[in-house]
Amino acid sequence: MSKVNLNDLAARIEAADVxxxxxxxPTQLAPKLSAELGQNIxxxxxxxxxxxxxxxxxxxxxxSGLSDSERARGVVAASAGNHxxxxxxAAQYYGTDALIFMPVTTPPIKVDAVEAMGAKTQLIGDNYDxxxxxAIDHAANSGAVFIHPFDxxxxxxxxxxxxxxxxxxxxxxxxxxxxxxxxxxxxSGIGAWMHKHAPKTKIIAVEAAGAQTLGQSLQAGKVVSLNxxxxxxxxxxxxxxxxxxxxxxxxxxxxxxxxxxxxxxxxVKDVFEATRTVVEPAGAQALAGVIQHIKSGEAPxxxxxxxxSGANVNFDRIGHVVDRAEFGSGEEMLFAATxxxxxxxxxxxxxxxxxxxxTEFNYRYAPRKDAHxxxxxxxxxMEDREQVITDMxxxxxxxxxxxxxxxxKRHLRHMVGGRGDDKAEVLYRFEFPERPGALTQFLETxxxxxxxxxxxxxxxxxxxxxxxxxxxxxxxxxEDLETQLSGTGYPMWPETHNPVYEFxxxx
Length: 507
What we know:
By secondary structure, the protein is of the alpha/beta class. The protein has 20 helices and 18 strands.
C-alpha cells in the first residue's frame, strides 16, 4: 500500500461530520496527579461521550457519508462493545438498519445497550476476530455496508477530531500526546492532525503488554497478526493492526510503550481519584504509559496529554481492577516467606514486618522442617518492596517476591492451604472463553486416564476465564497429556516448576 496522504487526511478531519452525535469533550488538568508526577498531566475525557467512548466519532463520520442507496441496504459491524454502541447510535440517528456481530463472551449489559439503540445483534464466536469474519461474510452476502472499527479513512478522520479539540482546548501546545492503541484508528487520527498543525508534539502509542499489535508490526516492518492476545484491556485487544492505520502510524508515531495489566489497574485508580469516574482498562491505558515514561525519565518536558478513551466497564470487573491496582503502583507487595516450622518463629516473622499494614495472610501447618507463609503487605513504592526483603533477610527469613507472578495473584492467594498427595502431579494454567460449555469442551477432550487433582477458577468479568489445573500423571506420560491438552485449543502454560506451587500446593 502506498503512503496515506497526511494533508488529505487532515482535511478530512477538518471536514468530519461528527457533532450531530459526538460531544466536544473537555481536556482537563489533573492537579493532584500532576503534582505527584512533577509534570502537567491533562486528561482528554472521551469517557464523557453519551456512549462513554470516542468510538462514536468514527462511526458518526462514516455513516453520515453514506449515500441514500447505501443507507437503504443497512450497515453491519463487529464489536464486543464500544464500536458496536457507536455504530448503533449513528445508524439510529441517520435512519439506517444496523446489525452488530458480537462474540458469545460479550457481557449482556453491552448487548442490551446496543439493542436499546435499535440495532440487532448476533452472537457468534469466542472473540472479536471470529465475530468480524462473520460480519464481513454477512455484508458480502446481503449487500449491507460493513463499518470497520478502525481501518477506514472516514473512521480515522472521525477519531482525528479528538486531536483537533485537544489543540483548541490546551493553553499551550502539548509536548506529547499519549494515546491508547489497539487497531490504530485513534492514534492515526490524532497523529495526522498533529503532524499538520503541531509537528513538534510527540505522539506516543501505548499498548497493553499482552496485545502489542503495533509494537510487533513496527519491529517487523509490516503488519503481523499475533498468535495470542491478552484480552484484559478488551477495548484495545486486537490480533491484527490495520493496514491503513499502520501506514499512517509509520509516519506520525514518535514512540511506543507497552504497559502491564497491573500498571493499567493502577492508572484506573488514578483516573478515579482525579475525576471520580471508573473507566474501563483500555480507557486508562494511555495514562499508564505516561506514568511509566515519567518515572523512567523518558517523558519530554512540558504539558502531557493522555486520552481517557472510554468508560464501558463491566461492574463485575471492578473488584479485580481494585485488587490489582496497588500492585501496579508499587503500593502492595505479595510474597512468600520461608520460616522454621517451630515455636516462636511465627512471632519473630510478625515482628520483622514492623508497622507495615498487612492486606492478607495465608498459612497452614505442614509436617515439614520449614513453613511457607503467603503475605500481602502495604508498601510505599517499588523501593519499599526491596526494603521489606532486606528487613526479612536481617532476621534470616527468606522472601520470594510474587508481586508479578500471575499464578500467585490469580489463583494461589484464593486457595492456600490444601496440599496434594504423593502421586506424580503436573500443573498448568489455561485461558477459557467465558461462555457456557467451555469447561465441558475442555474435559471431553481428555481421556479417562488423566485424573484432575487440582482445579481453581475465579470469574473476573472478562471475556477469558483463568483456570489452574493439576493432573495425576504416571511417569513418562507427560508428553501424551500435553498433546491432548493442546487439542483443546485453549492457551496453556506449564506451572509445575513455579516456586509458588513448590511452596504451597505440592504434596
